[in-house]
Write the structure tokens for this entry.
Amino acid sequence: MEPLRPSQPNWMQSARPKLKSTAQESSPDGPSPYAGAADSFREMARQKLKPTYSYPGAKLVEFTALQLAEAHYLKQGQGEVTPAPAVGQPRSGMLGNQAYMNSLVSAQLTCLPALAPLLVGVLGDLDPQKISGVSHSNGDNKWNIAGGSLADQIRVSQAIGGQQQALGFPLTGVLDGAEPERVSQALQPLREQIGPERLQNLLKNVHIQTYLGEVQSGPSAGMGGLGGGGQVAIARDALLDPEKARDYLGHEIGHLVDEEMGRKFGVLLLSDHPVSPFGKGEVGDFRSDYARRNRMEDFAETHTDLMLNWRLYKQFPELGMLARGKYGEKLTFIAQNCYDWTFAAPRPHLVKMAEDVRSGQSPLGYRNAAGELVEADKTLQRILKTLQAHTGPGGVLDEEKVFAVSRPEQTRRRWVLDALRQQPGETRQAVSVQETARDIQRAASLIKGDPEKPRLGGSVLRALEMGGPIFAAQCGEQLGDAPEVRKYLDSMTTVAGTTWQPGTF
């Protein structure tokens, strides 16, 4: 694919629409209209907001009270003595918002070993309907942002003093002491790949928050991140897992890159360009179900993949990008047009390897009941990353660690390594649901002592180990409910291992 040619800036070019701020409700200053466990936090919130908002609306007051309540108990947990507010009878309030409560608990804030009764009282008195803010949409993806808008969330954090830095980037939110370092660790590889100066121009602020809002399109769920206009927000619990934090940041920064490169190529967003491959294709042409919502989310999800697998795709572009159909075209589009990657002539042995994987001429993946190859490419990418992780200085592979796994996984890794080294290996096929189901049915029908029974049994066991639990479940669906056959299948899966996972036996 040839990279696009940048267009000259056009004075008619429009900017990305900005999210609307919460409407400010004008009301005379006077006694608090609120009452309950959170009342003191609401009063404090109104005072904190006054320098920025002459008459802060109810949504902002409620949202700021929530932030102040978190900050209050965070300081208590860190050993600072802070006055406790009056406690009222806990009501539903934010306690009824499961996404918020899950995030709060999973974030493991030092101040919340057992959700202090005072905090329960405050959260029970806050109104989730007021906090939810206003709805936003980018096509099929719809969401409700807590506090009204990301800009409002950041201004609230600044008003209550929640400001630090991570790698020189402004960091806002009610922050746990370890969170700036978690953000720095997640940002570091992204900064190296994108370029320090370029990322500094792209990313104006990182915001951390327990409850960002709710996704409304599809099953209701708490939001994991937001990105646009130079601002990025990440849900607090995402930071607990470094890989997950990089994934979220790579996605949200992907939205910023989409905006930046859109301006360069004369469109609102690069994903909107007439030759853009995003938002098109079948299920297998997207990184995730979320990517299928629209072009913007497809771009951001593909950008995340490039960030997480940068080194892998650089070393093996024939396997990671060029041979992956329409999804590979999306990766290549971003690599070429956003990061100026160039590709040398494909190496024939890697092209052959990719063809073998795609055609099922390898032990990677399996064929489902419809004969479609499943999980083969995903398994290949995983094994390639494993080989990279165990390659030391001078390109020396630590084979002892690579092959310190179960026999089925050894088989997969050996096949990949032999193909990379251009060593002819034993011809192998991806296991098949239909063939394995037939072997199970045949083995179950044979009497004990028939020499064919153990031969078939060994073949079935190897297939189940290579295919994994989902493969075994699909074999079961093919076999139906015949008691003897089900009993035989259950005995085989017990031998394979009751807790096995694909690729980790």
In short: Residues 242-264 form the longest helix (23 residues). The radius of gyration is 27 Å. The chain has a mean pLDDT of 83. The chain has 21 helices and twelve strands.
